[in-house]
Amino acid sequence: MNTISADEHVFVKSPHRTLVFLSFPVLLSLIAEPVTGLVDTAFIARLGSESLAALGVGTMALSSIFWIFNFLAIGTQTEVAQATGGRSPARAARMSSLAFGLGLIFGLLLAIIGYPAADGAARLLGATGTIAVQAQSYIRIRLFGAPAVLATIAAFGSMRGIQDMRTPLLVASGVNLLNILLDAVLIYGWGPIPAFGISGAAAASSVSWWVGALWAAIAVRGRLGLPDRIPIGEAKRLLRVGGELFLRTGLLIVFLLLATRAATRIGADAGAAHQAIRQVWVFTNLFLDAFAITGQSLVGYFIGSGRVAEARRVAGVVCVWSAATGRRQPCRSSCPPGSWRLPRSRSVRFLLQPMGFTGARVISATCVMPSPWQPVAERRPWC
Question: What single-letter DSSP state applies at residue 232?
Fold first, then answer.
């Protein structure tokens, strides 16, 4: 791993340009997952409102859990960034390997615990009848890919910790492209391959994530090398870093789960509309995350090198760009008469029309969509 001194870092001379330059591939890699969610939604929408509502229940349950474990990426990114700033590549390799291993272990435990709990999770989110059966099947098949998902999240944190923002983009893009291709085959069937419906979408995601995990592991090894040992004792440090984030994210997810439960209990159409709208809403929130993730790497790097003043400068630049971006995003959460045409209504309309949502039904669904505005750098406490 090549290292440069903090004085020579490009951020020192061009802070704003550096932040934007590093944030752009981060944004694209973050967008890749919601784009796949939107594509899955478009595929499943053609199977009917019950299947789409089941997809909403399944993805909400799993994405909530995976999101909670995002502390693996955040903790790993911080540790690797500080090791890089302190010119300690050996420590960066050790912490990266530890996080990757923890991701595999946590994912395996999640699959073991979650498989028998799939039915209860679906019904807890308000699914009944056919919707519950399809959601249960989706969750169980997706859980086979849980170790790969969490390990890949940790690997992304390692790569971003050394300010390699392009590799996570390439891996995420490859995973999602493979997922889209498999969706077309497994959901509808092709030649001798039968149509598996929503179960096919789950299988496509699981296979794609395992390919991504292998790719990410090879990429991390190529940049950081093999560790001389795996510091098991440092696991507490990573978990401690993630404790507060676990609580913050958990509380947010409780709100999203309650919203999904309420929509699903109204009926299949409401659950389907909620799934389409939520995917678009998530998509619009990623601009702030891109600045936050980039800022985290830079802050860790300068703290590791002992340049606290420069780390504070990074935080200030990130907050300025986040505030400016937040002001550019729509702040309305309701639709007064004559002003219902929100910027993302076309996206929602595209996803809902295959199920027969037209005219006022699309307008109503779009109008209840929450605003994508979030607090400045909402994923990071250091602003």
Answer: G
Taking Cα atoms as reference points, which of 25, 63, 24 lies closest to residue 41?
A: 63
| 103-113 tens-digit pLDDT | 999 999 999 99
Cβ atoms of 270 and 263 within 8 Å: the answer is yes
CA–CA separation, 241 and 298 (whole Å): 17
Angle between the 146-161 and 71-85 helix axes, to the nearest 10 degrees? 30
- Minimal CA–CA distance to 32: which of 216, 170, 176? 176
pTM over 0.85: no
128 alpha carbon, distance to own chain's centre: 27
Mean residue pLDDT across the chain: 80
Contact partners, residue 117, CB within 8 Å, separation at least 6? none
Q: Is residue 118 pLDDT above 60, yes or no?
A: yes
* Band of residue 242 on the pLDDT scale cut at 50, 70, 90: low
Q: How many CB atoms lie within 10 A of CB 313?
A: 17
The Cα–Cα gap between 176 and 233 comes to 35
| Pair of tokens at residue 108 | 């395996």
Measured distance CA(332)–CA(179) in Å, rounded: 34
Q: 190 pairs with which residues across the strands?
A: 193
Nearest to 144, CA basis, from 62, 71, 220, 67: 62
Residue with the larger pLDDT of the pair 163 and 262 = 163
d(CA 85, CA 91): 11
**Closest C-alpha among 280, 282, 262 to residue 352:** 280
Sign of the Cα torsion 262, 130, 348, 125 reads: positive
The one-letter code for the residue type at 356 is: G
What length is written for the chain?
A: 383
